[in-house]
């Protein structure tokens, strides 16, 4: 995957991939959240990226990421 927003390759950790499977998050959906979601800077290269998705019951999906030489997705979670 490659983020157009950040102009970086996207690397998903094993932990984040496990959470994606548990929460039925696909790569295209994750990339949509990364490229078009709200970006909250958490400092020191860390960001929360999130997006409201009306067609999902959980409807607010977040990704914790680190910006380095790649955008590293550390975990994903659902806000209710």
Short characterization:
The chain is of the alpha+beta class and 80 residues long.
Characteristic key phrases:
alpha+beta; YaeB-like fold; 6-stranded mixed β-sheet; 6 strands; 46% strand
Give the H and E element order.
Answer: EEHHEEEE
Discrete helix count: 2
Distance between the termini: 27 Å
Supply the number of structural domains.
Answer: 1
Please state the second-level CATH architecture: 2-Layer Sandwich
State the name of the first-level CATH class. Answer: Alpha Beta
- Which descriptor suits the 3D outline? globular
Number of strands: 6
> Poorly predicted ranges (pLDDT <50, ≥5 residues)?
none
Helix share, percent:
10-25%
Q: Structural class, from secondary structure content?
A: alpha+beta
Mean pLDDT across all residues, rounded? 86
Note the beta-strand portion. over 45%
Largest sheet: 6 strands, mixed
Radius of gyration: 11 Å
Here the CATH topology equals: YaeB-like fold
Please explain how this structure is put together.
With 80 residues, this protein is an alpha+beta fold. It has a single domain (2-79), classed as YaeB-like fold (2-Layer Sandwich). Helices cover 24% and strands 46% of the residues. The protein has two helices and six strands. It has helices at residues 14-22, 27-36, and strands at residues 2-3, 8-12, 38-43, 46-52, 60-67, 71-79. A six-stranded mixed sheet has the order 1-2-6-5-4-3. A hairpin with a 2-residue loop joins strand 3 (38-43) and strand 4. The longest helix has 10 residues, at 27-36. It is globular, with a radius of gyration of 11 Å. The model has no long low-confidence stretch (mean pLDDT 86).
């Amino acid at each position: 995957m490659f983020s157009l927003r950040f102009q970086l390759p996207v690397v998903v950790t094993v932990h984040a991939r496990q959470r994606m499977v548990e929460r039925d998050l696909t790569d295209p959906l994750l990339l949509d959240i990364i490229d078009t979601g709200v970006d909250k800077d958490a400092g020191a290269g860390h960001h929360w990226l999130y997006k409201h998705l009306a067609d999902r019951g959980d409807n607010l999906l977040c990704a914790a990421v680190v910006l380095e030489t790649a955008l590293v997705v550390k975990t994903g979670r659902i806000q209710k």
